[in-house]
Amino acid sequence: MAFGFKSVADRGINRNTSKNQWRGIGTTARMVSGGFSFDDGEQVLVSVQKPLGILLEQDDVDDENVLGPVIVAEVDPSGSAGRAGVQAGDILVAIQNASVEQQSLEYAMDFLQQTPRVVNLRFIRPSS
């Protein structure tokens, strides 16, 4: 296996009859026209094309020395992130596999502007 990638079979994911949906134990991944989405119940990973169609904001924290998380405030359902399953309230934790936790909104936005057209994002979805 080159570069540490595993085949779908190596990961224990079986392709079911749906052309656009792959399932494994406790995980769901789906190919959508806007990108790729993977949800393991704890984190949501998406690979989407720009423009993303999301509005980000930084949550306020009582301690002025601590940065709050960067949160998805709004999602355009027809945008690539919306089609990949990103939801309002999702917490952005990584861009291109680099953590943006404890970073400012400006840092995250600058980072996003420097990424290629297809960007990988990792979110935590708070329990409802």
TrEMBL record:
PROSITE patterns, per the entry: PDZ
InterPro entries, A to Z: PDZ, PDZ_sf
Gene3D superfamilies noted in UniProt: 2.30.42.10
Domain PDZ: residue ranges: 52-127
Highest taxon above the source species: Eukaryota
Name of the protein: PDZ domain-containing protein
